[in-house]
Amino acid sequence: MLLAKFKDEVEEILSRYPVKRSALLPLLNLAQREEGFVSEPAMRDIAKVLELTPPQVFETVTFYTMFNLKPIGKFHLQVCKSLMCALVRSDDVVTWISKKLNITPGHTTPDNNFTLSVVECLGSCGTGPMMQVNDDYYEQLTEEKVARVLEDLARDGVCSLKSGPYMYPIPLSQS
Ligand code: FES
Prior knowledge:
Elements: H1 7-15, H2 24-35, H3 40-50, H4 54-63, E1 75-80, H5 83-87, H6 90-101, E2 107-108, E3 114-119, E4 131-133, E5 136-138, H7 143-156
Parallel strand pairs: 1-3
Antiparallel strand pairs: 1-4, 2-3, 4-5
Helix pairs in contact: 2-3, 3-4, 6-7
Protein backbone atom coordinates (compact mmCIF):
# COMPACT_ATOMS: atom_id res chain seq x y z
CA MET A 1 0.00 0.00 0.00
CA LEU A 2 1.63 3.19 -1.21
CA LEU A 3 -0.03 5.54 1.29
CA ALA A 4 0.97 3.38 4.26
CA LYS A 5 4.59 4.34 3.55
CA PHE A 6 3.70 8.00 3.94
CA LYS A 7 1.41 7.77 6.95
CA ASP A 8 2.53 11.06 8.54
CA GLU A 9 2.30 13.02 5.31
CA VAL A 10 -1.13 11.56 4.53
CA GLU A 11 -2.38 12.50 7.99
CA GLU A 12 -1.01 16.01 7.60
CA ILE A 13 -2.78 16.37 4.25
CA LEU A 14 -6.06 15.04 5.67
CA SER A 15 -5.83 17.46 8.59
CA ARG A 16 -6.03 20.42 6.19
CA TYR A 17 -9.58 19.65 5.12
CA PRO A 18 -12.90 19.42 6.97
CA VAL A 19 -14.10 16.79 4.47
CA LYS A 20 -11.89 13.81 3.56
CA ARG A 21 -12.67 13.82 -0.15
CA SER A 22 -11.18 17.32 -0.47
CA ALA A 23 -7.76 15.72 -0.03
CA LEU A 24 -8.09 13.86 -3.33
CA LEU A 25 -5.83 16.08 -5.47
CA PRO A 26 -3.01 16.35 -2.90
CA LEU A 27 -3.03 12.56 -2.44
CA LEU A 28 -2.94 12.02 -6.19
CA ASN A 29 0.01 14.42 -6.34
CA LEU A 30 1.75 12.43 -3.63
CA ALA A 31 1.18 9.17 -5.54
CA GLN A 32 2.50 10.65 -8.76
CA ARG A 33 5.50 12.18 -7.00
CA GLU A 34 6.46 8.76 -5.65
CA GLU A 35 5.74 6.55 -8.67
CA GLY A 36 5.97 8.98 -11.58
CA PHE A 37 2.36 8.20 -12.49
CA VAL A 38 -0.88 7.29 -10.73
CA SER A 39 -1.15 3.52 -10.75
CA GLU A 40 -4.36 1.54 -10.29
CA PRO A 41 -3.26 0.22 -6.89
CA ALA A 42 -2.57 3.81 -5.81
CA MET A 43 -6.05 4.88 -6.98
CA ARG A 44 -7.64 2.03 -5.01
CA ASP A 45 -5.55 2.95 -2.00
CA ILE A 46 -6.59 6.60 -2.18
CA ALA A 47 -10.25 5.65 -2.68
CA LYS A 48 -10.14 3.55 0.47
CA VAL A 49 -8.54 6.30 2.58
CA LEU A 50 -10.98 8.96 1.33
CA GLU A 51 -14.03 6.67 1.43
CA LEU A 52 -14.65 7.17 -2.29
CA THR A 53 -15.24 4.57 -4.98
CA PRO A 54 -12.31 3.73 -7.30
CA PRO A 55 -14.27 5.13 -10.30
CA GLN A 56 -14.61 8.47 -8.49
CA VAL A 57 -10.83 8.61 -8.14
CA PHE A 58 -10.30 7.42 -11.72
CA GLU A 59 -12.58 10.07 -13.20
CA THR A 60 -10.61 12.79 -11.38
CA VAL A 61 -7.27 11.40 -12.56
CA THR A 62 -8.46 11.32 -16.17
CA PHE A 63 -9.96 14.84 -15.97
CA TYR A 64 -6.66 16.55 -15.12
CA THR A 65 -3.94 16.26 -17.74
CA MET A 66 -1.20 16.74 -15.15
CA PHE A 67 -1.78 13.20 -13.91
CA ASN A 68 -0.10 10.40 -15.83
CA LEU A 69 -1.78 7.03 -16.16
CA LYS A 70 1.36 5.20 -17.21
CA PRO A 71 5.08 5.51 -16.43
CA ILE A 72 6.80 8.42 -18.14
CA GLY A 73 10.39 9.45 -18.76
CA LYS A 74 12.61 11.26 -16.28
CA PHE A 75 11.80 14.56 -18.02
CA HIS A 76 8.23 15.23 -19.09
CA LEU A 77 8.16 17.74 -21.95
CA GLN A 78 4.70 19.27 -22.18
CA VAL A 79 4.26 21.63 -25.12
CA CYS A 80 1.25 23.94 -24.99
CA LYS A 81 -0.86 23.68 -28.14
CA SER A 82 -3.65 26.09 -27.20
CA LEU A 83 -4.55 29.09 -29.32
CA MET A 84 -2.10 31.76 -28.15
CA CYS A 85 0.86 29.38 -28.39
CA ALA A 86 -0.42 27.91 -31.65
CA LEU A 87 -0.42 31.42 -33.15
CA VAL A 88 3.30 31.73 -32.41
CA ARG A 89 4.04 28.30 -33.88
CA SER A 90 3.97 25.85 -31.01
CA ASP A 91 3.71 23.16 -33.68
CA ASP A 92 7.33 24.03 -34.60
CA VAL A 93 8.38 23.28 -31.02
CA VAL A 94 6.83 19.82 -31.28
CA THR A 95 8.61 19.28 -34.60
CA TRP A 96 11.99 20.41 -33.21
CA ILE A 97 11.67 18.09 -30.22
CA SER A 98 10.44 15.18 -32.35
CA LYS A 99 13.34 15.64 -34.72
CA LYS A 100 15.93 15.88 -31.96
CA LEU A 101 14.65 12.99 -29.83
CA ASN A 102 13.10 10.88 -32.57
CA ILE A 103 9.79 10.53 -30.75
CA THR A 104 6.27 11.76 -31.41
CA PRO A 105 3.82 13.12 -28.82
CA GLY A 106 2.66 10.46 -26.37
CA HIS A 107 5.95 8.58 -26.55
CA THR A 108 9.09 8.15 -24.46
CA THR A 109 12.68 7.86 -25.63
CA PRO A 110 14.17 4.34 -25.38
CA ASP A 111 16.51 5.50 -22.58
CA ASN A 112 13.44 6.64 -20.58
CA ASN A 113 14.87 10.13 -20.35
CA PHE A 114 12.18 12.12 -22.16
CA THR A 115 8.42 11.85 -22.68
CA LEU A 116 6.79 14.27 -25.10
CA SER A 117 3.19 15.46 -24.64
CA VAL A 118 1.11 18.20 -26.17
CA VAL A 119 -1.22 19.83 -23.67
CA GLU A 120 -3.75 22.60 -23.33
CA CYS A 121 -3.01 26.07 -21.96
CA LEU A 122 -0.44 26.19 -19.17
CA GLY A 123 -1.27 29.75 -18.19
CA SER A 124 1.73 31.36 -19.81
CA CYS A 125 -0.05 32.64 -22.90
CA GLY A 126 1.93 35.89 -23.24
CA THR A 127 5.28 34.17 -23.56
CA GLY A 128 4.64 31.42 -26.05
CA PRO A 129 5.61 29.23 -27.60
CA MET A 130 6.35 27.50 -24.33
CA MET A 131 6.75 24.15 -22.70
CA GLN A 132 6.77 22.79 -19.19
CA VAL A 133 9.56 20.38 -18.27
CA ASN A 134 8.70 18.67 -14.99
CA ASP A 135 8.12 21.70 -12.71
CA ASP A 136 9.87 24.32 -14.87
CA TYR A 137 8.56 26.57 -17.63
CA TYR A 138 10.63 27.43 -20.72
CA GLU A 139 9.16 30.24 -22.75
CA GLN A 140 9.59 32.25 -25.95
CA LEU A 141 11.14 29.09 -27.34
CA THR A 142 13.35 29.01 -30.39
CA GLU A 143 14.93 25.97 -32.00
CA GLU A 144 18.24 26.95 -30.37
CA LYS A 145 16.72 27.18 -26.89
CA VAL A 146 14.90 23.86 -27.27
CA ALA A 147 18.14 22.19 -28.35
CA ARG A 148 19.97 23.66 -25.38
CA VAL A 149 17.30 22.52 -22.89
CA LEU A 150 17.30 18.97 -24.27
CA GLU A 151 21.09 18.72 -24.49
CA ASP A 152 21.62 20.11 -20.97
CA LEU A 153 19.04 17.78 -19.46
CA ALA A 154 20.41 14.73 -21.26
CA ARG A 155 23.99 15.53 -20.29
CA ASP A 156 23.72 17.09 -16.81
CA GLY A 157 20.18 16.36 -15.60
CA VAL A 158 19.65 20.12 -15.16
CA CYS A 159 19.21 22.95 -17.62
CA SER A 160 21.61 25.89 -17.71
CA LEU A 161 18.86 28.21 -19.01
CA LYS A 162 16.74 29.91 -16.40
CA SER A 163 13.14 28.77 -16.52
CA GLY A 164 10.19 31.13 -16.50
CA PRO A 165 9.41 34.33 -18.40
CA TYR A 166 12.48 36.09 -17.04
CA MET A 167 14.59 33.84 -19.24
CA TYR A 168 13.39 35.76 -22.26
CA PRO A 169 15.15 39.13 -21.96
CA ILE A 170 18.40 37.40 -21.09
CA PRO A 171 20.44 36.80 -24.25
CA LEU A 172 21.04 33.09 -24.75
CA SER A 173 24.81 33.54 -24.51
CA GLN A 174 24.51 35.10 -21.02
CA SER A 175 21.96 32.66 -19.56
S1 FES B 1 -2.03 29.31 -24.81
FE1 FES B 1 -0.09 28.44 -24.34
S2 FES B 1 0.18 28.91 -22.26
FE2 FES B 1 -1.80 29.65 -22.68
